[in-house]
Structures are given as structure tokens and as C-alpha cells.
Amino acid sequence: MAQPIVKLNHVSKSYGDSTVLKDINLELEAGKFYTLLGPSGSGKTTILQTISGFTSVDAGDVYFDGQRINELPPNRRKVNTVFQDYALFPNMNVFDNVAFGLTLQNVKKAEITRRVTSALKSVHLNGYGNREISELSGGQKQRVAIARAIIMEPKMLLLDEPLSALDAKLRRDMQYELRELQQRLGITFLFITHDQEEALAMSDEIFVMNDGVILQSGTPVDIYDEPINHFVANFIGESNILNGVMREDYVVEFVGKRFECEDAGMRPNEPVEVVMRPEDLTITTVENGKLVVTIDTQLFRGDYYEIAATDDDGNEWLIHSTNSVPDNSRVGVTFAPNDIHVMRFNESEEDFDARLETYETDD
Ligand SMILES: Nc1ncnc2c1ncn2[C@@H]1O[C@H](COP(=O)(O)OP(=O)(O)OP(=O)(O)O)[C@@H](O)[C@H]1O
User: Fold this and answer.
1) Which of 20, 24, 161, 190 to mutate to test the pocket of ligand 1 (most atoms within 8 A of CB)?
2) What is the ipTM for the molecules in this complex?
3) What pTM was estimated for this model as a whole?
4) Which residues approach ligand 1 with their CB closer than 6 A?
5) DSSP 8-class letter at 176
6) Residues 86-110: pLDDT tens digits?
7) Long-range contacts of 254-260 (CB under 8 A, 24+ apart)
8) 3-class secondary-structure state, position 332
9) Which domains does the chain have, with CATH numbers?
């Protein structure tokens, strides 16, 4: 990576007895869309605030464009934040809300008008300058908040769950718009969400957090296909997670059978967890199945059926199928070696990367 725009180096933060950031290391490249994804209370907002300057760190260093900024006050940092509740001024109209930062800087009136017009255009609100905030929909308020942030021409935009107040349809539309805006402006976005689908859809890179720790970072595809542990596998999408044993390189045993897989680099007979995504399982005849299951229930999800089934050992399975299968029928389930993903218990991201590298070079 060229010089990162943001670097957090061994950053920790506590409130009283509770450590909310534990030795965070993070590097962000300029011009990309990053997402912090994790459950409530995992420390996402706190990371954002160490970058915006609204929170000081107890240990470690925060760098922006190569400069250490631990002591730099928020108003001198080249980042702007878009908040979940938009934090608009209800007594000002749209124009004045968007112009606010420039007015504080005593920018000339003509330039303010030019820049507000351009910022409103960027978020598809041309002609809304005279509207009162109370006359706007949730999505429009959200866009005003974004216009107010981008008008300051920050090098980076921090977005703290900006879509969470919107209904499902508008939220989807805004996902497209935000992604498109980021690409058009070319500035770095650091976006917070606890919605895994949103993170997968929008990001160049995702950081999955839990309990003050970054568990895994990577592209959406990497994280979806190669979750490093139970928490990530469960949090990112639907999964079947089973206990298994790695018998040798490329051979894993679970549900009492041995299967060829693409994982290696573990001790022989090491206990592991096996992840299989519902969409990677295919329903077939009992004779052709690698497993045999009984169908419990199914839900029609629009473009597929989500099928719950149980195997003869009592393990529950979730399977996505484009065809409906009658309840209580016995069917076979098949899958390929690369549909099996093996995870070590409590593997760190470094160990995981090292293991991936070992068997990638073996091939
Ligand atoms: N000013 C504060 N004083 C004390 N504790 C705080 C403070 N700010 C945050 N915390 C605690 O730090 C932890 C992490 O909070 P943070 O807001 O970073 O989580 P989050 O992942 O952004 O959660 P959410 O998705 O709910 O916004 C929480 O347990 C929270 O209660």
C-alpha cells in the first residue's frame, strides 16, 4: 500500500474498567470505501471518534496522511462525520445547513452559493435550498447531512450508521447512492454498520469487530468465503457450522464421514469447525447425496427457497434451493470440496493468513 491515509497503531481505549478498544491496528488507503462491521457495543463508533478526534486514545498512535494526530483538535482534522441522527439544525433551511461550515470560515457569499448548489446537486437535491428541515423525508435529511459534510471537501468522510433510520427500500437506494458518490468524489469513506448485507454490498474492504477487537479484515468476498472463526462465519450471512476433525491435509471428517476439502496446515486429528454456506449445498437424490437429510420446513424467499432439514445424526442444516421440496421427504445433499471451509478454533488473523499462504504456495 502507498502511504495510508489513516493508520491506527496499537490503539487502546478504556472507559473506567471496560476496555472498548484493544490494541487496534488498522490501515486505510486513500480513495476506498471501508466498513466497520460489528454488533452493538463492539467499538465501531469509538474507532471513528479516534479518527475524528472526538475521543482521545489511552495508548497507541493515530496517523493521518503520515502525520501523528493524537493531539490535533477535531476542527483541524481533515475529516467530516455524518451521524446516524443527521444532527441537522432544525431552525435553519437546507441551504443554511449545508453552508454552515463555510459560513464559520467566513467564505465569500458568492462562493458559498456556488459550493452549496454543487453539493446539493451531488446528493440529488437541486432546488431544495429553501426547504425547511421539517419538510424533508428521512432520506432527504440524510442527503442534506452528507452534502453538509462533503462541502467542506474533506479528505475522508466518516459515516456512523447513516442509513439506519431509513426504511428498507430507501435504505437500498441510498446504498447505491452512497457508493456512487464515494466513487465519483474519490474520497475515502469509513462507514459503520451492523448490517452484514449492507457491508458486503458497499465496501471495498470490511473490518469485522467484536468486543473491542478487529477479528478479520478483507474484501467482502474474502470475508464471506473464508471467515476465520465461528463469530465471523455466523455474523456474515447464513452458515451451517459443524464440529469436525482434520484427519490430514485436505481431508476433514464431520457428521461421521470423511470429505475431501481444500484446507491444510493443521495438525493431524486437530478438532476444527466446518462452515458450509446454504447456497453451496445442492439437493439431489438419496443415492447421489454425500449426506442424507429429512426436510423440516421451507420458506419462500423470492429467488430461492430456504430449507431447514435434519440429518440422521440430528444435525440441523440450512439449504438454499431454487426448487421447492416437500416437507418430511428424505433427500440427498451434495457439495464440492471447495464448498467446505475449515476453521481452526480461536485462530488469529495473522495465523489464518499464514496458513492460507502455506497451502496456496503448495498448489
Ligand atoms: N463516553 C463513554 N463513556 C463510557 N463508556 C462508553 C463511552 N462511549 C462508549 N462507551 C462504551 O464503549 C463500548 C463501545 O461503544 P461504541 O459506541 O464504540 O460501540 P459501537 O460498536 O459503535 O456500538 P453501536 O453499534 O451500538 O453504536 C460500549 O460498551 C459503550 O457502552
Assistant:
1) 20
2) 0.94
3) 0.87
4) 15, 20, 38, 40-46, 194
5) H
6) 789 999 999 999 999 999 988 999 9
7) 255/291, 255/311, 255/313, 255/315, 256/313, 257/290, 257/291, 259/290, 259/337, 259/340, 260/337
8) strand
9) 6-225 (3.40.50.300), 239-362 (2.40.50.140)
